[in-house]
Amino acid sequence: MTDIVPYQDRTLATYDEVERAAKAMAGSGFFSDTRQASQAIVKILAAREIGLGPFAGMTGVNIIQGKPAFGANIMAACVKRSGRYNYRVTEMTGEACTIEFMERLDGKWTTIGESKFTIEDARKAGTKNLDRFPRNMLFARAMSNGVRWYCPDVMNGSVVYTQEELGADVDEDGNVVTVVEPESETHIAVPTAELTEDVIGDFVEEKPVIDESVLTIEAAYKIETSDNPPRRYGDLPMSELTARFNELSKQLKANHLEPAERAMKERKVKAAKMLIDAKRNGEL
User: Fold this and answer.
1) Contacts of 184 by beta carbon, 8 Å cutoff, 6+ apart
2) pTM beyond 0.70, yes or no
3) Model pLDDT for residues 50-97, shown as the tens digit of each residue
4) What are the DSSP E strand ranges found in the chain?
5) DSSP E strands: which ranges in 30-95?
């Protein structure tokens, strides 16, 4: 049997290239669940971690309640292309789906277990789409369980969930239609009062051109620089944070920025300001 060659990304070699591709995809309007470049970046990077390309990430990966959810086709492709594992559907009805998982041992395919998901299992789990797409739903759940149980390494350590497991409503092809968001989330508001001329080392605060939206400290910490390799803002020393704040603030005064690029820089400015304040107050 010929092994499927894993995807090798030769076009998006740096974070800047990923960022440009994400802006183009988010701005295209073709992906209804991805309206911001930052959302597209997360999906593209999630796909890259399991060896898939940017388009597969945009169509087959969803971030729901902070967890990555993968389409059944993505999981099936990861199993098939691994070269080490394979699967075979042995039962497929409107009542049950059974998938046999195999591993190549000593040059032969050896059964290592099977994953079965029934309509009764689905009812107990409160699974959606029982009446509309039972066969598709049963296959997706049997596949996700099987990958978790028998070959989790094909997902490079990512915990495997289907979109439905995390509360999303999907269509017949597994595309997300609606997403159930958490009931509440704690936010820390970015101060909106005009900044003073307080000096912190070489840092002179000046009022940036930013909106008045909110940002969590956790999200600010995880925002990445455009360096290669990228670094998280929360790991930067105070001196570098302040330098980035000043530089981004100057860039935001330019009138030639595209809307997506401006939004990205505004978010980074807010993150830097929030982390600077947190470090100054001993919160980090």
Assistant:
1) none
2) no
3) 888 888 888 888 877 777 788 888 899 999 999 999 999 999 999 999
4) 61-64, 67-70, 85-92, 96-105, 108-118, 169-170, 176-178, 188-189, 199-200, 203-204, 214-215
5) 61-64, 67-70, 85-92
